[in-house]
Amino acid sequence: EWLGTAIDILDRAAKQIQGAADLETQICSADVENKCLLKEKVEDQRTIIKLQTQLIEKEQESVQSFKETAQKEVNSYAGVVASSCATALSPKKLQTVVKRIHDTEDRSRNIMIHGLVEKNGEDLKKSVSDIFSQLGEKPMFSIPCKVGKPVSGSLKQVKVSFPSASVVPTLLKNLRQFTLI
After folding, report:
1. Contact 175, 113 (CB under 8 A)
2. SS3 sequence, the chain?
3. What is the distance, to the nearest Å, from the Cα of residue 13 to the centroid of all Cα atoms in its chain?
4. What is the 3-state secondary structure (H, E, C) of 97-113?
5. Neighbour count for residue 94 (Cβ, 10 Å)
6. pLDDT band, very low/low/confident/very high, at 45 (cuts 50, 70, 90)
7. Over the stretch 127-156, which tens digit does the pLDDT of each residue have?
8. What is the pLDDT of residues 79-107, one digit of tens each?
9. Residue whose C-alpha is closest to residue 163's, from 143, 142, 146, 135
10. For the chain, which end, N or C, has fewer CB atoms within 10 Å of the first or last residue's CB respectively?
11. Rounded Cα gap, residues 163 and 139, in angstroms
């Protein structure tokens, strides 16, 4: 009888030892998985930082392009004025030139989409987004606006503005190949 009790005690101890070993294995496995997830998070954050840096660089290029265009336009205008008359540039004329340059830069960030069917209660941004998705593009754009009088069931023009003019040529190339069905 004492032998049976000893066997029971050893058997229970063996089960507890095995349970502890299984628990240790699970803890090690969870630790490895946690390290893998941490490593993925660090890589994702590096990617985000890289993309943010690229975005900042593109914005700086856009600002620099505007500055260069403004400088060329002012120089060109100043040259014409200097050669045609002896009077100096008035501040009002200079403001007009700068406004014209800004308007040109502003228009270069827009595209017009013709032929969308107007439906009551439609989400115009979603419709435009769907068109870009069909082209395989997902550019960021501001809320599109309708051009012309709203008539239900008619074709309409939609103006879409982008944060940068660099997106427009690619989209126009792809839009030429696109036809609404």
Report:
1. yes
2. CHHHHHHHHHHHHHHHHHHHHHHHHHHHHHHHHHHHHHHHHHHHHHHHHHHHHHHHHHHHHHHHHHHHHHHHHHHHHHHHHHHHCCCCCCHHHHHHHHHHHHHHHHHCCEEEEEEEECCCCCCHHHHHHHHHHHCCCCCCCCCCEEECCCCCCCEEEEEEECCCHHHHHHHHHHHHCCCCC
3. 61
4. HHHHHHHHHHHCCEEEE
5. 14
6. very high
7. 888 888 887 888 888 777 777 776 666 677
8. 666 666 545 557 777 777 777 776 666 67
9. 142
10. C
11. 9
Give the integer Cα–Cα distance in Å for 132 and 124. 13
The three-state DSSP-derived secondary structure of 15-39 is HHHHHHHHHHHHHHHHHHHHHHHHH
The CA distance from 179 to 4, in Å, is: 86
Q: How far apart are CA 128 and CA 151, in angstroms?
A: 18
Please give the structure tokens belonging to residue 86: 């002896």
| Tokens, residue 115 | 């032929």
Look up tokens 């609404």; give the residue: 180
Contacts of 170 (CB under 8 A, 6+ apart): 137
The total number of residues shown for the chain amounts to 181
Partners of 117 in the beta sheet? 155
